[in-house]
Amino acid sequence: MIKQPETRPISQEQLVAEVKGIYAGLVMVESKCIEVDNAQSSANEGSKLNNDQWQALIALHRTLLHEHHDFFLASQHPSASPALRRLASKYAMPARMWRHGIHSFLELLRHRLPASLEHMLTFIYLAYSMMALLYETVPNFEDTWIECLGDLGRYRMAIEDDDLKDREVWTAVSRHWYSRASDKSPATGRLYHHLAILARPNALQQLFYYTKSLCVPIPFLSARESIMTLFEPHLSGAPTRLADVDAAFVRAHGILFSGRNNDQLASSIQEFLDKLDNHIARTTVRWTESGYYIGIALSCSLLEYGSESNILMRSIKSGRTHDVDISMDDSENAMTQKFFNALDFTARTHTVVFQRFGDENVDPYLHVTLSFLKHLSQFPTAMGHIEEKVPWKLIALMLNTFVTKSASVAKFESDIFPRPEKETHRPIPDDYALRGLIWTEDYYPSDWFTGAKVDDDEKYFEVPSMKEERRERCLWLGARVASSGKWLTYDESAKKFGVPSKYEVEVLNPSTKDSMQHKEGDDGDVEIMDAPVPNK
């Protein structure tokens, strides 16, 4: 038998003294790091550091990281008192570690590229190892360590110009950590902004993440500047590698967002709509992902990309179901041309997509759209600004095609969120895309995401069983919207969705303006191309 080394319990007084001693040394090293970083940042750009000087700076910052590590281990010791454990938060130690121990020096190294490349690589690996160690040993600040690991991965990705494979690896590493961080803080827009940067060259995914970063409870306002790096090539007419239909969609959003090139808005929207139906038919299953990106981006455009003055944003943020704080007269002042343009763009896109009866590849688009309409249905005044443009009849007809395939009508007729029958559930890909958005706060059960054990790289992987689950969800959302009878109706005895008489419309040409027109003096029947024929 091997004798274990003798261990002695540490007293509270000893632990306090240890933490105080570590902190005193840490502050001294931190001050030195701040001093040298500031001095080098303000130095003449022509002044170059030699190898020994870079090594000395790396050693200095490594010392600060080690001091922080010792501080965290001591202050978060299992026998530490609550007061001692609070010290790290009280003195903002995680933020100070990142700012003075890592970020300032990385920025200094970045500005001295390419001469500093080797030293920057060395320091990134050093800092990444320290953050990974803290992630394992100091779980109280796990959220911070995860985001820092994502940031370090992004720095490493950004400086890799020679090896495309290495760049892709570090992009994936950074995306993994940011996705983990967004799972823990789904309402934080900053994380979606970071994911938008990593989404290049997928412009639709970039647009989705940028707009999402502005339409969550904690928006990242700096994204209003960053998003222009996506829009600028499209606004300036520079050639892109995007398909024409996607380029037109991104360009239209760029015009709506920036207010520039307004004379090109109508033609950009028209180009997108003219090509959309054939594009969906040609790309088939690949449009399932594009569908929820496009649907969410359009909903964000109706919120004027998170604008505080937007009438829908004001209603949603008020949290008052009956909009008692916003009257129609007051809200008219908040209606902008940008809102009307976005509404026209959104409604006409809905009209094209929702005529694809029986095409399950557009179901994710319907799902994200219904989630928005369901939330907005709680705010009648806000809904009043868009209701005339929404193709309610097409939505009702599409939902009716789902009813005939539904395995459990009672499930979507119930007010309770429709869970799958199996014990372990798995959110569908569009759930992850919707999670955190300002209009989905009351959509999902509290354990919907936390109870699911899904690997990060499998979140957006579609499995066959999800198609039925998505249809059930669409039916449930449709039934919730129909509960008031103002926009959709649902006949429980006939098991059929419908619309109030004012929304009985005829579809002429889905790609032209004013394609949804009210029929005058008829009995309410509607003729729609490719509409499902009811059973006789």
UniProtKB/TrEMBL annotation:
The Gene Ontology biological process terms listed for this entry are: nuclear-transcribed mRNA catabolic process, nonsense-mediated decay
* Pfam families linked: EST1_DNA_bind (PF10373)
Q: Where is the DNA/RNA-binding domain?
A: 175-384
| Gene3D superfamilies for the chain | Tetratricopeptide repeat domain (1.25.40.10)
Region Disordered: start and end of each range? 508-536
State the InterPro entries in the record.
DNA/RNA-bd_Est1-type, Est1/Ebs1-like, TPR-like_helical_dom_sf
Provide any one GO MF term from the record: telomeric DNA binding
Alphabetical GO CC annotations of the entry are:
telomerase holoenzyme complex
**Protein name in UniProt:** EST/SMG-like protein 1
Taxonomic lineage is:
Eukaryota, Fungi, Dikarya, Ascomycota, Pezizomycotina
